[in-house]
Design goal:
This protein has about 290 residues and is of the alpha/beta class. The protein has eight helices and 15 strands.
């Protein structure tokens, strides 16, 4: 297979995608500011600041482009630069080339949804973001959808996994979200993030026509109280301190990933239970659930 895949923002998830694609015969090039972090991965490193538009001409031609950058800080200017402006520059560069990508993938977020009363949301739900993060992510999505290049946006819910243990740490401190009113939360394990992207890349190379947007969240939206209660029981921790805002930005919705599941993707961790068992084990913490 003579396929070149370019991963822009090749961090934790991108590196996992890259390694999986190398096993499938791809040539994988990973672009990031600190390219030395890719040493030993098999991914060809490329040092790049995505917002330096003059440097984008140095990007190699690629069959698959995966844009998976993260903003370097939680500020509106950083989100605008990382998502909308960065993606716009990359698309403009490849739109002008003779050798255009077969497909461009953009990693977005369910923060584009403004629903907050426990509604179920999917790819057809209204997009009315209430914060700047969702606003700039959605503008980036729209830029891809209007590009002449074939493209797919994947909206990920809250990513967790080894090294992403904020909720576990809160539970270990004896804290828990209130049971009422129920605040629904959604999540996807880091390994499933990489799995979804790898799977969709394979599908498009097989000639499958992908949808313009997929929502990627595990199979069970659950009240954050229930998730924390389960973690407490698993670790043998008694929760006594009720906190009113366990999430950085309060929102309550139920993400439905049925469309993604119809493609044939099977979750490695279908619910938070399977996923957090793995996280607790990796962290050397007890798990009796």
């Amino acid at each position: 297979m003579n396929i070149t895949t370019l991963i822009l923002g090749c961090g934790d998830v991108g590196t996992r995608v890259g390694k999986a694609l190398i096993e499938r015969g791809h040539r994988v090039i990973g672009a990031r500011r600190s390219a030395q972090a890719l040493e030993g991965t098999g991914i060809e490193p490329l040092a790049l600041d995505i917002n330096d538009s003059s440097a984008l001409s140095n990007l190699p031609d690629a069959d698959i482009v995966l844009y998976i950058l993260s903003a370097d800080r939680f500020e509106e200017s950083a989100y605008e630069a990382a998502y909308h402006d960065g993606l716009d520059h990359v698309l403009s560069e490849f739109e002008a080339r003779k050798h255009s990508p077969k497909h461009v993938f953009f990693a977005s977020s369910t923060s584009v949804y403004g629903q907050s009363e426990g509604e179920t949301v999917n790819e057809d739900s209204a997009i009315e973001p209430t914060g700047f993060a969702g606003k700039w992510l959605h503008r980036a999505e729209q830029r891809l959808q209007t590009s002449p290049l074939p493209g797919t946006t994947v909206r990920f819910s809250g990513i967790y996994g080894p090294g992403r243990e904020r909720l576990i740490n809160q539970v270990r401190e004896g804290r828990i979200a209130p049971k009422s009113p129920a605040m629904y939360s959604n999540r996807i394990h880091r390994d499933d993030c990489a799995g979804v992207l790898t799977f969709l890349i394979e599908k498009t190379l097989e000639g499958v026509t992908l949808e313009p947007v997929y929502l990627a969240s595990d199979k069970e939206a659950a009240p954050i109280h229930d998730v924390m209660l389960w973690l407490g029981k698993a670790m043998g921790v008694e929760s006594s301190d009720i906190i009113q805002s366990p999430l950085r930005r309060r929102a309550s919705k139920r993400c439905d990933s049925a469309l993604l599941q119809t493609t044939g993707y099977e979750f490695i961790y279908p619910t938070f239970r399977e996923g957090y068992r793995e996280v607790l084990k990796a962290a050397g913490l007890p798990c009796t659930q």
